[in-house]
Structure formats: structure tokens, C-alpha cells
Design goal:
alpha+beta, 16 helices
Length: 582
């Protein structure tokens, strides 16, 4: 058996030429695809320089993590009673969870599992909140909106709401004309509603500068997965309405209303999803897009200002946001017939586990350090990876929420998995991309499918050896990438995606990466360990680690999974004060 030494994992800088200087990259006259490519190159981290940012924390301009609309009615949601017994594994057993009727109680549980606070942390006199949807740097640029039908206890009329996570409440931004609501949702099953996400770029740019657009898209992907998972816990379906233009989303949620923002930080529309309180969907009819101003809305509230001033602006974020905005288009339809079945992915279907869905969702935490010793079982490792693969029948959650075939594949650094050799691995999440990955990666790789691996799980051993130092090195020197059971880089089929779907799909690639991360977060909880996303990595050295020299493929996100080291200096406080009547 051929093995490689630790020394053989040393990384030179790529010999493809020095990176272009930031000031020379973006061309205002370039096509949207050229702007995207220039932005991605500009915001790479290198051994000798990081992407442009302020380089320090300007605490005087730290943004408020909570958007509010003073002047809008605040509809408080009663907190769901804790201890809901739904097993975690049943989230993935679509059709086995009884569908809850649409009501204030079910809406409350949906937001509790999707976007709510899960705890407060305290260190001396400083406190900060954690949420069900994780965020880069815990900065939370993602805002959630809903268009709900008439529900008596929420006001008795169709309305546009903004979710206020600190209060676990809905801010009623607009009351809709009943006729307009009927026309808007005519293509959808009764009991459906619309969910939207937006990004406040400034929240991430305050800390991360020009790379912030990437992190906003990661967070949107995490939130999309958390929405789908929350829907599954209620027996509901959720599907992305991918053919809807950004201007329609902005109009629907009032994001284009300048009079409601004034000097407040604007929000960038990201996505719109359909939630159905019936059988899960694998596709959705197009939305009857309302013309601007025609939804009969009476708008209420003005956005709060998040920072007194910004100090430094990052215009390239606005440029790439403009280049990646989408107009109305035909929904994506693709063939999944060559994908594996659930039985091929898992062997024996998973019908047992340690946790309830509630415990996994609300107990999810981001590890801040790994212990460097905890190993996980082969069974847990294979199950985690199998959760990341869409199935042939398109009933694999959360992948049934998005219509495109996987564009994100994994390059893994395996450190401590019982019965699995240490080394570099690849997970080809689309069976038809295996040959392309073999072509683009290092020629001498073995591409060995382990005998103990389920037959449908496309996991391949590339090269055996101790890659702990390598994993840490390419993740900006962060030991957490080498101290876990395994870590990974998410390798995107990048240029082909832009060619096939256009510049707007740049966002979708990050969304898909964020969804992968969200599944890994919950799977780690179920396995009794922890995980965390890593947004800081040296882009091109990651490619070199796997022998990728083509710019067609790019690293989009990193993740690490293992036994965490608890920070005993921190005090954990409950997310909400439970009212006496509950």
C-alpha cells in the first residue's frame, strides 16, 4: 500500500502567476460573468496577503444584529412548548410526519426551528445571542420575511411580515388586498405561504470587508436549509422559486421602498421559497408576479439604522451584487435518474438515533476548538456524507428544496474515523461529475472506493497519509481544521455553472455550500460531537492540495467536524423568557 509522508503535503504557491492587485480587477464595462470572476479572484486569501478588509474591529460602528421596523404592528408568537418528541432521523423520512395545519402555533414552531434565537452567551458583562441559522462571525446579515394568508389570530387578513428573532415575533409590514393575495398564490396548493430571505451586506462587511458578499451568500444557504428542515419537522414541503426575479422579491417584501429605509442600511433580496402545509414538493409552479405597487399593500414601519456611520465602504460588494441579480427566468429542471436510491446510500435505512429533532436544531452550536483526539465511528461518518447526496426520487431533504443537480463536491481531510484510513478523499455529489473530478485532480490519485462504504455513496480515497497539518495550513492556519475527526473543502464546479446558468448562479453556489454545512451541523449534533464552518481559507493553496490547477473549479467553503473543547468561561442563558401562561 502506497502511503505519503507528512512532509509530502507541503504546499508551494501556485505557479500560475502572482494574483492581480485588487485595484486592477473590476472593470465597470465587463459582462456580469466577468465581474463575478474578477470579484472572486480579488477576494481570495493568499499566504502573503488576505482579501481587503479594515483589519481591525471598529467597535463604534458595530452593526445592530436585529433589524426592526418601528411603526409596524408587532405580533408576538407564543413560544412552542419544549420537549416535542419527534425523532431527529424522522426529519429525513418524508411523508412520515403528519402535516400540521397552518395556525399561529405551527407558524411559531416553524420560525422557532428556522430563524429564532437558541441561547444567549455571557462573558463577564458582555452578552451575545446564538440562532438556529448560523452565521459567519455571528454577524447575521440574513433577514426573514413571510407572506401569510388570513389567519384570524394574526390579524385576519393576508399580510407581509418581517420576522423579529429577538422577540420571536412577526412585524406586520403590509396588509394585502384579498384579491391580490388570491391572484398571487393561485398556482399553489391551499394552505401555502411564501418565505423570503434578504441580506444586509454591511453586517458582514463591517468585519470582513470585500469578502463579505461571499459570507452573506453562505448564510443565505444555511438559512435556506434551516427553513427546509423546520418545514420538515411540521410535515410541510418547501421549494425554492428559482425563476423569480430579484426586483419582484424586493417589491413583494418592501425592500425597494426607499421611503421605508431613509438612511438605514438597505437589504439585498436573495431568494423566495414556497412553503406548503401538505405533501413535500419537488417542484413548484411559477409565482404570479405582481406588478410593482399592484399587491394592494398598506405599508407600515420604517427600518431602524444599524450603525451610526460606516467609516469604510466596500463598493466592489455593490458591483458583484448588481452583476448577480437575477431577472425572471424559466425554472431550472434537471434529470436525477442516475442518482442513487436511499438504500444504496445508507444500506439499511436509518430509523434510529440519539436526539429529537428539537434537541438537534435548538442545541446546534459552532465549535470554537477541537480536542485533537475524538474519533467518530465509520457508521456515523458514512451517514453524514450520505445525507449530502440527493436521491433518485428527489425526496431527500433538504435537497428537494433546490432544483439543480449538485455543483458542490467535497475534498476531505480525514483524520480520526475508526476503520477509515487517514488521508485525502473526494465525495462526488453528482455521479456524472466523477470523471470530471478525476480529470481535474492530481493524476496519481487512487480513487479507491472503500469496501466498507455503502455502494451508492460516492466517496473515494485519493491518497493515504497524515494530512492534519495540511488541513490546518490551507484553512488560514486554524488548528481546528486538523484537530477534528475530519475537515473538508467544498469544491465548486464554478465556471461551467456560470456558463450554464449565468452570473446570478454565483450566489446559488454559495447557497448550496451553506446547505451542505447546515446538514453537517445537525449530523454532528446527532453523532454527539460538534462542527463549524470555516470561511477563512487560502483559496488557491486549497486547489493545489488536491492537484487542481484549472480555474474552472474553485473552493467555496470549508468545514470541520469533531470533538469540541468547551469554553468554560462562558455562561449560557435561555433564548427567551417563557411567559407564565405557557
Amino acid at each position: 500500500m502506497t502511503t505519503i509522508s507528512k512532509a509530502s503535503f507541503r504546499l508551494p504557491l501556485l505557479s500560475t502567476g502572482a494574483p492581480a492587485q485588487p485595484a486592477d480587477l473590476l472593470d465597470a464595462d465587463g459582462s456580469p460573468e466577468e465581474v463575478v470572476i474578477a470579484y472572486h479572484e480579488r477576494t481570495k486569501h493568499y499566504f502573503h496577503r488576505y482579501a481587503a478588509s479594515l483589519g481591525c474591529m471598529d467597535w463604534a460602528t458595530q452593526p445592530d444584529p436585529f433589524r426592526r421596523y418601528p411603526g409596524a404592528d408587532l405580533v408576538r408568537l407564543l413560544l412552542p412548548k419544549p420537549g416535542r418528541p419527534l425523532p431527529y432521523w424522522q426529519l429525513y423520512a418524508l411523508g412520515e410526519v403528519s402535516s400540521e395545519p397552518l395556525s399561529p402555533e405551527s407558524i411559531s414552531l416553524f420560525f422557532r426551528y428556522a430563524l429564532s434565537l437558541t441561547a444567549w452567551k455571557r462573558f463577564h458583562e458582555t452578552t451575545w445571542s446564538l440562532r438556529a441559522n448560523p452565521s459567519s462571525g455571528n454577524l447575521h446579515p440574513t433577514e426573514g420575511y413571510a407572506v401569510l394568508p388570513a389567519i384570524e389570530q394574526l390579524g385576519g387578513a393576508p399580510a407581509v411580515y418581517h420576522y423579529a428573532p429577538k422577540e420571536h415575533a412577526l412585524e406586520r409590514r403590509a396588509i394585502l388586498d384579498a384579491k391580490a393575495w388570491t391572484q398571487l398564490c393561485a398556482p399553489f396548493p391551499e394552505g401555502s405561504f411564501l418565505m423570503g430571505l434578504s441580506s444586509v451586506h454591511w453586517r458582514e462587511a463591517w468585519k470582513y470587508g470585500e469578502r463579505a458578499f461571499r459570507y452573506c451568500q453562505h448564510d443565505a444557504g444555511h438559512a435556506l436549509a434551516s427553513l427546509r428542515i423546520a418545514a420538515s419537522a411540521l410535515g410541510w414541503g418547501l421549494v425554492l422559486l428559482d425563476g423569480i426575479g430579484d426586483s419582484a422579491i424586493a417589491g413583494l417584501f418592501g425592500l425597494s421602498r426607499g421611503e421605508d429605509y431613509g438612511r438605514a442600511e438597505r437589504e439585498e433580496p436573495e431568494l423566495l421559497a414556497l412553503v406548503t402545509s401538505g405533501l413535500p414538493l419537488t417542484s413548484a409552479q411559477p409565482l404570479n408576479e405582481p406588478a410593482a405597487g399592484s399587491i394592494g399593500a398598506q405599508w407600515c414601519g420604517r427600518a431602524n439604522t444599524l450603525s451610526p456611520e460606516h467609516g469604510v465602504e466596500w463598493p466592489v460588494i455593490d458591483e458583484v451584487a448588481q452583476a448577480t441579480r437575477r431577472s425572471e427566468s424559466a425554472p431550472i429542471t434537471e434529470d436525477f435518474s442516475r442518482f442513487p436510491t436511499e438504500e444504496q446510500l445508507f444500506g439499511i435505512p436509518v430509523r434510529h438515533g440519539l436526539l429529537t429533532a428539537e434537541t438537534a436544531i435548538l442545541g446546534r452550536r459552532s465549535a470554537v476548538a477541537m480536542d485533537g483526539s475524538t474519533a467518530i465511528s465509520q457508521e456515523a461518518f458514512f451517514r453524514m456524507l450520505a445525507r449530502l447526496i440527493p436521491t433518485r426520487d428527489r425526496r431527500s431533504m433538504p435537497w428537494d428544496a433546490i432544483p439543480w443537480r449538485p455543483r458542490i463536491h467535497l475534498g476531505l481531510f480525514v483524520h480520526r474515523v475508526e476503520g477509515v484510513p487517514r488521508g485525502l478523499y473526494a465525495l462526488a455529489r453528482d455521479p456524472d461529475k466523477l470523471a470530471a473530478l478525476q480529470e481535474v485532480m492530481r493524476r496519481e490519485y487512487r480513487w479507491q472506493h472503500l469496501p466498507s462504504c455503502p455502494p451508492g455513496l460516492p466517496l473515494y480515497l485519493l491518497q493515504e497519509g497524515d494530512c492534519r497539518a495540511l488541513a490546518a495550513t490551507v484553512s488560514c492556519g486554524q488548528h481546528i481544521a486538523g484537530d477534528g475527526a475530519f475537515s473538508l473543502g467544498m469544491i465548486a464546479d464554478y465556471r461551467d455553472s456560470l456558463t450554464t446558468y449565468g452570473a446570478a448562479f454565483y450566489r446559488n453556489l454559495f447557497w448550496e455550500a451553506g446547505m451542505v454545512g447546515q446538514v453537517l451541523y445537525l449530523e454532528a449534533e446527532e453523532a454527539g460531537i460538534r462542527s463549524t464552518g470555516i470561511g477563512c481559507y487560502f483559496d488557491d493553496p486549497v486547489h493545489e492540495a488536491f492537484g487542481i490547477t484549472s480555474r474552472q473549479w474553485q473552493s467555496f467553503y470549508h468545514f470541520t467536524v469533531g470533538g469540541q473543547v468547551e469554553d468554560t468561561r462562558l455562561t449560557t442563558l435561555p433564548a427567551y423568557r417563557v411567559e407564565k401562561e405557557q
